[in-house]
Amino acid sequence: MAGSVDAVGHERASLRTAGIIAVGTELLTPDRIDTNSLHLTAQLNSIGIDVVFKSVAGDDEAQLSDEIAHALARCDVLVTSGGLGPTSDDVTRDAVARALGLPLEEDPDLLARIRERFERRGLAMPEINRRQAAVVRGARVLPNPNGTAPGQWIETGSRVVVLLPGPPRELEPMFDQHVKPALANRSGGRMVRRRVIRVAGLPESRVEELAHPAYAPLASGRVPVATTILASPGIIELHLSVRGDAHDELDRALQAGVEAVARAVGPAVFSIDGRTLEQVVGDRLLERGWFVATAESCTGGLVAARLTSVPGSSGWFRGGTVAYDNRVKLSALDVAPNLLSEHGAVSEPVAEAMADGVRRRLAADVGVAITGIAGPTGGSPEKPIGTVVIAVSVAESTVARTHRLPGDRQLVRQHSVVLALDAVRRAVQPDPTK
Ligand code: ATP
Ligand code: MG
Question: Which of 20, 23, 25, 32 to mutate to test the pocket of ligand 1 (most atoms within 8 A of CB)?
Fold first, then answer.
C-alpha cells in the first residue's frame, strides 16, 4: 500500500476511506437537510478518498459519542459537521473527546482570538463562548475567518478526525483551504475522476439496453471504468468514474469510455461535458443566430423559466406566452377556433397552431408549444391524465408529438419540460434528422 513518511520518519498508511457525520437535531426533522456532506463528498472524491458511509446524529452527547466510536472503526478519515457553537446543545467537541478517551483543554491563544473577535465589534465576549476555546488534547486548531467556531484536526493512531462548523459558508472554505490539501498529501496520490453522459427522451431500460454492451467491458479494462445509471423525469444520466494514481492514464480511459458509451446510446445523448439541457439548447440557438419563443399551457411557464435560468439567454430567447385558458390560445396565439372545437385543446393540430402562433407573434425562428393533461382531473378514456402534446415550429415545418407520461401532476409537468427542451434541441441541431 502506498504511504508517506512523517516528520519523525515513520511510514504512514494512505488515507483512503472517509466517513461523515452531520450533527444537528434539526437535521432529523423534515425542515432541514444535510447538504454539507454533499460538498464534502465531492471534495474528498476529487482527492481519491471514497466516502464509505455517512450519518446524521442529533445534539445528544452520549449518542453522538457512540456514533463516533462506531464510525472510527470503519474509515481512515472521519469528518463531522456542526455542533461547534457556544450553546449547551453544541456537543461535538465533548462527544469526540469522550469517544477518543482524550480530555478537552482550553487553548489560551484561541480564547484570546475569540475574545478579540467580539471586541472588534465593540462587544464583550459572552461567557458561554469559552466553550469554543475547548480543544481535544493534541488537536490542531483550524481557523474560521467566517465565524467564531474554529475547526479541529485530530490524529488518532493511523486515523484522522476533523471537526468542522455547521454553516456551509464556514465549513466549505475551512475544508477546502485547510483540510483538503492536508488530506490530499496523504491519500497516496490517488484520485477519482467522473464524467456524466446525459440522455433525454428515452426510458431508463432502453438506455441500459443501448449502453450496456459499451460499458460492461470497461469495468474489466486495464483502468476499470465504473458506470452507474441515474433516472429523473425525462432525463437519464450515466455516471462514469475511474480511480487510481496515474492521472493521464485515468483521463484517457475516462475519455475513451465516455466516447464509447455516448456513441452506443446515440443521438438521444445531449451532453457529455456537464452542460444541462437548457444550456445545450441555448448554445445551439446562439450558434445558428436563432431565437426561440414558448407557448405553454399545462407547464405554465416552466419551460421559459428553465431557458431564462441560463446566463445570456437574452441572446437567443425571445419570450413566451402562458396560454392556459382557451381564450388566450385564441387571442394571444391566433389558434383558429375550429381547431379547438374539432380536436380539443390537447391535440396535435392545436399544439402546432400554438407553436406557429408564438413563433410569428414574437418574431422568433423557433416556436415550441406544450398542451396536456397533468391531472389529477381532466382525463378521459381517449386522453388520459399524462397525455401531453409538444409541437415545434420552424420556418419550413411544424411537427407535433403526443406523449403519455406516467406519474402525478408534478412529474408530468417536469417530464413535459424536458421533452419540450429536447424537441427544441433536435429542431435546432445542424442536422434535424439526427
Ligand atoms: P454555530 O456557531 O453557527 O452554532 P455550529 O458548528 O454549532 O455553528 P450548527 O449550530 O450545527 O453549527 O449549525 C448552524 C447552521 O448551519 C444550521 O442552522 C444550518 O443552517 C447549518 N447547517 C448545519 N449543519 C448543516 C448541514 N449538515 N448541512 C447544511 N447546513 C447545515
Ligand atoms: Mg450551533
Answer: 32
